[in-house]
Amino acid sequence: MSNREVYMDHGATTPVREEAVEAMLPFFKELYGNPSSVHSQGRKVRKAFENAREKTAAAIGANPEEIFFTSGGTESNNIALRGAAKRLNKPGHIITSSIEHHAVFDVCRDLEKEGHRVTYLPVDNMGLLDPSRVEDAITAETFIISIMAANNEIGTVQPIEEIGKIAAGHKILFHTDAVQVVGQLPVDVKKMQVDFLSLSGHKFNGPKGVGALYKRKGVKIDPLYHGGGQEKKLRPGTENVPGVVGLSRALELSVEEIPGKKAALEALRDRLIDGLLKIDDVVLNGHPEKRLPGNVNVSFSFIEGESILLSLDMHGIAASSGSACSSGSLDPSHVLSAIGLDHQTAHGSIRFTLGRGNNESDVDYVLEKIPSVVENLRRISPMGKTK
Amino acid sequence: MYNEKVVDHFNNPRNVGELADADAIGETGSFKCGDTMTLYLKVRNGIIEDVRFQTYGCGAAIASSSMLTEMVKGKTLDQALAITNQDVADELGGLPPLKLHCSNLAADALHNAIENYRARQGIGKTG
Ligand SMILES: Cc1ncc(COP(=O)(O)O)c(C=O)c1O
Ligand SMILES: [Zn+2]
User: Fold this and answer.
1) Which residue of A192, A209, A260, A333 lies most exposed, with the fewest beta carbons within 10 A?
2) pLDDT in tens, A160-171
3) DSSP state at residue A185
């Protein structure tokens, strides 16, 4: 085992930054009131909570009353899609992409069971969706379009503004799962012309289990839960005050830092990509330019992703893979299949996601260790070509 | 997620490679997850004298392959034929339930190799 640890799995989750921890602490201690209470303990907490809502709104160009706090990206996606379907109250048509996160994809699958028709739009071999396909797929029954802002596996960033224009032109609800984008790239809900946007705290160095749904003012959906009426009845339940405060602080800072960190992260990303592509029989998955700043996804021929992850772990390197064997299911990820990768290429994919705290020396450490990892596994493989 | 023995076999796989003068070759692949294995046997007087493997697959697949080669060396063909998928997993001290199917390829490749050997020797298939 190595004693150096290099974490390159920020797409899975990120460590909570110190400022967010600091911001949260008082709400575990002296500021413990229920924000719905009338007494001054409750009122103080309500004030902080609403302040967090303002910060969150400001970070994405929204108004505070358009922000609804949830337990994370999964719940935000469910509330938007299922809530719109519930409001419609009859079978309708949904347009989405074939590379959505399971928190959209599986919701759509489930809505199909309830009688809705879903179009899963194909993407090109770099993961990019052609907006004209959205336009072409629209029918009189289409009530919502849901397209992710950027893909969590291959990092491809979609032309959300163009799709937003199309949706708005047809007066169809438009949702974007921006979980991988918020805090990484500038987001403006007005420019994107979205009706709903999902974000999640733990992807931008905030806490886990807390997120938000932006719902444009005037857009009506039915709530999935009923209870004490919090979050304007859209997401009742006593508020996760520390979580929301931590999320808003982390979000405020990550958005502030975008101008400086984006180029730096991209430089690290490209350094890693260039180094990896120097190894024989390695291909880049995803788009060369329209790509999340920290996302690297490559496939190594002749070897399998989970075995690469295990070997990397021996060197203290944390990454992830879209291979069947690492997912616990028998199929490689639907995303890698959707961009046309054959079984073996999908099976040999590794995702490194860089984030806050990674530096050039981390990238160089990975580039130093990985050739022998690949070499060793190729030596074992019947398809391996040791040179 | 994997125990120490599995990790050891994964990190230091035994008997990796090909046997140029193999008496039998067994191949197997899991169509489902895509793992594949090729096993080479050198047989003398009905005893497995030498063995090599090549595996494309996850940690469980590689560790199981390596484990199997240790289990068969010196065994008679009949003894080797009696080795089951479960035996390999047990010898490794167990595998996570989701990874059991990945380990099946080792005993499968062995059985295919023995069939291949018997076919080459004109003994015909068993069973
Ligand atoms: C694109 C995308 N959507 C949704 C989610 C789910 O978010 P959460 O873990 O906050 O429920 C994730 C996180 O894995 C994601 O990457
Ligand atoms: Zn496997």
Assistant:
1) A260
2) 999 999 999 999
3) B
Contact A313, A301 (CB under 8 A): no
Number of H helices, E strands in chain A: 13, 12
Contact A304 B37 (CB under 8 A): no
> What CATH class does B4-121 carry?
alpha beta
Interchain pair B57, A325: CB under 8 A: yes
Whether residue A310 contacts residue B62, with contact meaning beta carbons closer than 8 Å, is answered with no
- The closest-lying atom of ligand 1 relative to the alpha carbon of residue A12 is 14
User: What is the model's pTM?
Assistant: 0.95
Q: What is the mean pLDDT of residues A302-314?
A: 95
Residues of B in contact with A380 (CB under 8 A): 13, 16, 54-55, 62
Query: Hey, whose CA ends up nearest to atom 4 of ligand 1?
Result: A73
Q: What is the pLDDT of residue B123?
A: 65
Cβ atoms of residues A144 and A81 within 8 Å: yes
Residue ranges per domain, chain A? 6-14+258-380, 18-253
E strand or H helix at A283: strand A282-284
| Rounded-to-integer distance, Cα A330 and Cα A220, Å | 40
Write a three-state SS string for A128-159: CCCHHHHHHHCCCCEEEEECCCECCCCCEECC
Q: What is the mean predicted confidence (pLDDT) over B99-123? A: 91
With a cut of 90, say whether residue A2 has pLDDT above it: no
Indicate the class that CATH gives domain A18-253. alpha beta
pLDDT given at position A320 = 95
Q: Which fold has domain A6-14+258-380?
A: Aspartate Aminotransferase, domain 1 (3.90.1150)
The reply to whether residue A307 touches residue B102, judged by beta carbons under 8 angstroms, is no
